[in-house]
Amino acid sequence: MKNLHQQFKVRRDMSKKLILAMFALAAFTLTTNAQNGDGFGIKAGLNYNANGNYFQSIGANAKHPDRNVGYHVGLYGKIGDRLYFKPELVYTQTKSEYGSDALKLQKIDAPLMVGLKILGPVSVFAGPSLTYILDSKFEGISLKDLENEFTIGAQFGIGLNFNGFGVDVRYEKGLSKNYGTVGVSDSRIDTRPDQLILGISFAL
User: Fold this and answer.
1) Residue 194, C-beta contacts closer than 8 angstroms, at least 6 positions apart
2) Bridge partners of 168?
3) d(Cα 49, Cα 42) in Å, to the nearest integer?
């Protein structure tokens, strides 16, 4: 049992180092783009979280638009034209309602998107999304025993770009669960819910 625990700890430490390296890659690319003019800008938008079946959650959100809604704001870089690499570094706040209670997260996200222009201003894109959780609260109580502060998800979507102004919609799915426990009841809450993300961007 001790050996299994040590192996799990080693793998978790390696995963953290990999994610930190990818965060560093995103930050380096953003800085480089700002210097050489490949492409650089700001972005912001809304995040719609899901609990359980995503499409059922979308129906619930349509009836109650203020539920499970968060926001994001940050920077992006872009290398390439028809085929491009677009790293982003954004601050995100999300809310997921569970009955009368709500899970609120503050995090830093680093999507690393590879995109392709397919017709005029229309492009499709996909890639990993790295997340570092800054704070997690369930009804004002901080989660404890969080499995990982760093997690990885996958995003894919479609976007429009008109002379530096962009609009995109994307879906994000966590590649693994990331549970924390709440209070004395030790209820388990997943901090990696699926998301529908609507964003706008402006080239600088």
Assistant:
1) 49, 50, 54, 171, 172, 173, 174
2) 159, 199
3) 22
Measure the CA–CA gap between 113 and 125, rounded to whole angstroms.
Answer: 6
Q: Which tens digits make up the pLDDT trace of 140-157?
A: 666 666 667 788 899 999
At 18-66, the pLDDT tens digits run 566 666 666 666 666 555 445 788 999 999 887 554 444 555 555 555 6
Take residue 170 and report the two structure tokens written for it: 């994307």
Helix (H, G, I), strand (E, B) or coil at 103: strand
- Closest by CA to 126, choosing from 145, 111, 107, is 111
DSSP state of 143: P
113: how many CB neighbours lie within 10 A of its CB?
A: 24
| Largest Cα–Cα separation, the chain | 59
In terms of pTM, does the model score above 0.90?
no
Q: How many Å apart are CA 191 and CA 68, to the nearest integer?
A: 13
